[in-house]
Amino acid sequence: MRKIILLFSFALALSALSSCKKFLDINTDPDRLPAEKADIAQLLTSATATVGFIGGSDLQRFSALIMQQYTGQTASGATNQTQDYEKYQITGADVNNLFGTIYATALNDLETIITKGAAENSPHYTGVAKILKAYVYQISVDAWGDLPYSEAQKLTNNLFPKYDDDEQIYKNILALLDQGVAEVNSATSTRSPGTNSLIYTGAFATTKTNWVKFANTLKLRIFLHYSKADRNYMVTQMTNLINSGAQFMTSVADNFEMQFVNQSNRQNPIQQFEVARANYLFANATLVDSMNVRQDPRRFTYFTQFPARSGNFKGGRSGDASSQLYSRLHVFLRGDTTNSPTPAANGSYSATAYSYTGDAPVRMLTYAEYNFIRAEAALYGVPGDAQSFFQEGIRASMIMARVPAASITTYLAANGTLVGSTDERLNRIITEKYVANYGVVMEPWTDWRRTGYPAIQRVGNAVISDIPRSLFYAQSEIDLNPNAPKQKGSMLERVFWDK
After folding, report:
1. Could you tell me if residue 307 is left (phi over 0), alpha (psi between -120 and 50 degrees) or otherwise beta?
2. What is the DSSP code string of 171-212?
3. Contact (Cβ atoms closer than 8 angstroms) between residue 135 and residue 218
4. Kind and range of the H or E element at 282?
5. Is the pLDDT of residue 111 over 80?
6. What is the pLDDT of residue 216?
7. Residue 23: helix, strand or coil by DSSP?
8. I want to staple 68 with a disulfide (CB 3.0 to 4.6 A). Which of 133, 286, 396, 494 is the partner?
9. For all residues of the chain together, what is the average pLDDT?
10. Exposed (0-12), middle (13-18) or buried (19+): which is 22, by Cβ within 10 Å?
11. How confident is the model at residue 24 (pLDDT cuts 50, 70, 90)?
């Protein structure tokens, strides 16, 4: 039965989140049970699948292209969508499907779990749903700014929700996380999540600690986002949380991620996009070159070698001539390979040369990020030793990338010491965090907007005057919701913490 449920939820999430075709229909789908009629156990399977797919789909590609971790390319010479996105040509219509999936699927399912779970006295379900809801709103606010919140998820009771102030939404989701932790820790619950959750799957007696650690670590991430807007608030709130004895992530086993498997419709969305849109994405020179300078051993799982088998890596840039003579995304994002292909005479691998399992997890908040959060916060006076957290962040990232222990030791000896001014140390922390958060949705873009690091440059063929600070609102919202704000004048408009 579990296998049937999992296959159904993955197929549903895949059909909902395919980036290259319409995946949201505002009409009723006769083949999908309405959320309000579904059981909370099934809804949690669907919701966690959707959150995982969001973490590896459009929003992740938009932010990774803006932050020059990926580069758009083509084999034919004709411009494709990733090349448009990389030069900042991301329109309101481009985010329609993403926005619809966040609101019509993920958040509606989570809200129904909260309502039904409360009615049947199942706080373990409502607590998990509130934590997930807070996460979805956090990445959404960071992408758009003001959003529907207080009047959202009312289904037919309110089809035209107003947009709430983004800073107030942040305050609301911090309260939501507190509620979620309290409810997850409830001594009794009529029902509890188990293997039906695709994130932190397993017996709830064990996984509830993972949910608590994730919720508290997410609070640290949120507080850190105030570093530019309200440093005193950030320091006070993080200090209070740390001194409260709250549990945080302690190893890579605590990563907030969704695992995928090597089966049709159950491979991770990054791999599925690579198969469906061959030659659309390659490694970006900004990321690759920064790793080349330090002879970073993570390159061997992050990217394919170019030329093949040379031990070297090469990234592309926006506006480069059509070519496949670059490193491609590799096993860290796509899953293990099942073959050892022969490269072309020019040293390149074709898009189909490697066979990938697609079972790499979509990583959304990791133990490595937790350590970089603590390292940066320590620079501002929050309790903790910046140097220790910095090294542990690098170590955790390399463990995820399956770097041998001896290579980790060598890298840390050469690159693991924070020196110089506060700003110079911040630069090193964020640069390493940028490498560690390869594949993590939104956070590298958020870090750059907060700190200016890594010091990426506007691409030469950009269609706007500077690097984007937020996404346009979904055009479907502008057209259909009379309570939506006017469309943004440009992607240079800032969210509240990006002063």
Report:
1. beta
2. HHHHHHHHHHHHHHT-S--S----TT-SSS-S-HHHHHHHHH
3. yes
4. strand 281-283
5. yes
6. 98
7. coil
8. 286
9. 93
10. exposed
11. very low
Buried residues in 216-229 as b, exposed as e (16+ CB within 10 A): bbbbbbbbbbbbeb
Using the structure block, give the residue that is written with the tokens 């949120």. Answer: 222
Whether 74 has a pLDDT exceeding 80, the answer reads: no
The three-state (H, E, C) secondary structure of 358-426, written as one string: CCCCEEEECHHHHHHHHHHHHHCCCCCCHHHHHHHHHHHHHHHCCCCHHHHHHHHHHHCCCCCCHHHHH
Cβ 250 vs Cβ 213: under 8 Å: yes
Residue 390 CA to residue 382 CA, distance in Å, equals: 14
**pLDDT (tens digit, 9 = 90+) per residue, 431-470?**
999 999 999 999 999 999 999 999 999 999 999 999 999 9
Q: What does the pLDDT read at residue 374? A: 98
Does pLDDT of 14 surpass 70?
no
Flag whether pLDDT at 28 surpasses 60: no
Q: How many CA atoms lie within 13 A of 303 on its CB side?
A: 35
- DSSP-derived secondary structure letter, 106: I
Cβ-based burial of 154 (10 A; exposed 0-12, middle 13-18, buried ≥19):
middle
State yes or no: pLDDT of 9 exceeds 50: no
CA 297 to chain centre: 23
Write out pLDDT tens, residues 342-401: 999 999 999 999 999 999 999 999 999 999 999 999 999 999 999 999 999 999 999 999
* Cβ neighbours, 10 Å, residue 77: 8
Query: Does the domain made of 2-18+34-263+468-480 have the CATH classification 3.40.1160.10?
Result: no
DSSP letter for 316, please. B
What token pair was written down for 298? 């993570």
The identity of residue 496, as a single letter, is: F
Distance from C-alpha of 149 to C-alpha of 140, rounded to nearest angstrom = 11
- Does the structure show a pLDDT above 90 at 203? yes
**What is the spatial distance between Cα 499 and Cα 495, in angstroms, rounded to a whole number?**
8
- If phi over 0 gives left and psi between -120 and 50 gives alpha, with beta otherwise, what is residue 452? left
Q: What is the dihedral of CA 252, 408, 220, 257, to 10 degrees?
A: -30
88: left (phi over 0), alpha (psi -120 to 50) or beta: left
Question: How many angstroms separate the CA atoms of 329 and 70, rounded?
Answer: 8
Question: Which residue, 166, 189, 228, 176, is CA-closest to 446?
Answer: 228
Residues sharing a CB contact under 8 Å with residue 74, sequence separation 6 or more, in sequence order: 80, 83, 279, 280, 322
